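User: I'm preparing a small set of examples for a lab meeting where we compare how different chains pack in three dimensions. I only have the primary sequence for this one, and I'd like the structure in token form so I can line it up with the others. Please keep the answer compact; I'll paste it straight into my notes.
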Amino acid sequence: MSSKDKKQESEKSHESEHKGKSKKLKRKIYEAALFDLQAELVKLQRWVVATGERVVVVFEGRDAAGKGGVIKRIMERVSPRIFRVNALPTPTEREKTQLYLQRYVAHFPAAGEIAIFDRSWYNRAGVERVLNFCTEEEYRRFLLGCPLFEKSLVDDGIRLFKYWFDVNSEEQERRMHARITDPTKIWKLSPMDLKSRHHWYDYSRARDDMFAATDTVHAPWHIVISDDKRRAQLNCIAHLLNQIPYEEIPSGEVVLPEPDTTGAFDDRATLASRTFVPDRF
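Assistant: Understood. Below is the structure token output for the 281-residue chain.
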């Protein structure tokens, strides 16, 4: 059985085991499944490099829906030189005068690369529309032009995948409260996040209008229900892997060489006069 078949069989097993269960996925099961999927991501990485493929993955969704979490899991065991995460800041004054899509295109992959967008050009269809950061004309022009833009990417050979993470209102509220009280998470709570709570239904309408205009045959949206973060992460990564016809690239036998002992010396002793970090733990 090939590695791809094993992966699909594993996913079916996990799906069958937990189908119909509403309780959160147990950590032990989650970590075992995640390890298998991350091993497949490494195989995907080797295949992309070997074949010169170009992949773009867009992550959008509600605030606190778990986009950052799935990106973190994807990146844990792969090379950041191959899997590149793009989380663009607020555009500069100069960028505001450029073509809207111009600054995103600059981060697109070359051969053998996977570009991940932690939010993307779809900002115009979401936060910019809801908070009036763009004009109605700019918004309408985006909805008309975006499908054509994405078709040009796909026609040029780029593999484009778009994921929308959706979380229910109660769970979003719980996660935002957790960010307020946790000193390691407070940085995740931006003024935009707070406004998103107030504009919950405005964002819902903007989401639905965005889907109506940009959920196309050549670049469809895939919705990830992320009320349970662990399940959402596994489901999303498994889905992404299944969309790409990658194959395992043999690495060959790896032999670890021994150090050349010609001119050997006590290399730790030569550090004795240097400044060391104190042992506090």
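A couple of notes for your slides: The beta strands are 54-61, 83-86, 113-118, 159-166, 221-225. The two ends are 47 Å apart (CA to CA).

User: Perfect, thanks.
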